[in-house]
């Protein structure tokens, strides 16, 4: 009987080819994972900026909606609802306390009377680059348009612009 080749196993070339294919598949999978992770982080940063800006707009709108006419002139001026414009606004709230909403550096700040200021935006998440109040008291119903622009603190390329218009509802009828 002839001698048969009893060697069982893989040749060096087979092992090198298999390792190369496995490495290539691993690099592609890791690359795809890293790209999806970066996309997810960008989406979270964008969502956080939107939430901060939306909260500041909604909170401010709610406060301005119940503003009262400053008959005594102690806050906004005699007989008017809103004062200042630009990057700040003052008005009397429903408790007849003078309220201000202001751009302070890169954050929106709410202050009621002599109390300490409250941040409406979180500087670690969003930097407010622009805040503008456009006042319109012509006619019966005073209006304020609030325009906010902010960028992500983590990714300055993520920009959010939002605007809302609010009317004061506490109008004297007569």
UniProtKB/TrEMBL annotation:
Acetylation keyword on record: no
Pfam families listed in its UniProt record: N_methyl
Protein's UniProt keywords contain Transport: no
SUPFAM superfamilies: Pili subunits (SSF54523)
Residue ranges of the TM segments: 12-37
InterPro entries xref list: N_methyl_site, Pilin-like
Keywords in alphabetical order: Membrane, Transmembrane, Transmembrane helix
Family matches, as NCBIfam families: IV_pilin_GFxxxE
Protein name in UniProt: Prepilin-type N-terminal cleavage/methylation domain-containing protein
């Amino acid at each position: 009987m002839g001698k048969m080749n009893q060697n069982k196993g893989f040749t060096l070339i087979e092992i090198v080819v298999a390792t190369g294919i496995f490495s290539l598949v691993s690099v592609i999978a890791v690359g795809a994972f890293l790209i999806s992770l970066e996309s997810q982080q960008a989406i979270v940063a964008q969502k956080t900026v939107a939430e901060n800006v939306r909260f500041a707009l909604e909170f401010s709108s709610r406060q301005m909606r119940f503003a009262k006419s400053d008959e005594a002139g102690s806050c906004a001026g005699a007989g008017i609802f809103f004062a200042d414009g630009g990057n700040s606004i003052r008005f009397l709230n429903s408790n007849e306390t003078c309220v201000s909403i202001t751009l302070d550096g890169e954050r929106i700040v709410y202050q009621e009377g002599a109390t300490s200021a409250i941040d409406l935006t979180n500087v670690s998440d969003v930097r407010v680059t622009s805040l503008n109040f456009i006042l319109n008291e012509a006619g019966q119903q005073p209006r304020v348009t609030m325009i906010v622009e902010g960028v992500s603190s983590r990714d300055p390329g993520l920009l959010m612009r939002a605007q809302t218009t609010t009317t004061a509802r506490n109008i004297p009828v007569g």
